[in-house]
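User: Teach me something about this protein's shape.
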Amino acid sequence: MKRQVVLVPGLWMPRMAMLLLSSHFERRGYAVRVFSYSGRDPYQGNVESLARFAREKPFFVGHSLGGVLVLDMLNRHPEVQAEAVVLLGAPVRGCLAGRRFGRARLGRWMLGASCPVWEERAARWTRDTPLGIVAGTLPLGLARTFGALPGENDGVVRVEETGVDGMRERALVRQGHSMLIASRAVGGMVDRFLQSGRFS
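Assistant: First, the predicted structure itself:
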């Protein structure tokens, strides 16, 4: 039986946005499933839908809000098993850029029911399952149009917003937010972590 990996894209990202990452894992013998959701739907409903979507103890890889969904779902559903988890540019501690964007009428409409997720909050991991974090440090992203982001960031999410208490390892890469799911180097790092529990 093939190893299964569940990919969860970021907000408003279509399934096609995960194509390069999907192809990367398929070439390495994984069975890939992509979880789709709408930012207009209640956030908690998306968490519950992801819990129902998961089966057979898969690997999980979540990008941006998709990573927040993965973390929250696994923390709230201990019955859902996971082999290993990697979050890419996921603002698990809230998102300053998201809060700024949400102040505008268009931003509130685009962020939809996910708006509360961007508030500052704690992020913890208590499972023995390896959890790896990849954070970008190339500040290229539309969020910068709402003002400079303090500290290292990927143009949307600050590095300090990606940390999870109890994570196994965090890797910093010179990539912008959207490129985290398109980078061949990042794909290789994720594959190594899923197999060994370490990025290097």
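Now, about its shape. The CA atoms of residues 21 and 46 lie 22 Å apart. The two ends are 27 Å apart (CA to CA). If you'd like, I can walk through any region in more detail.
User: That's plenty for now, thanks!
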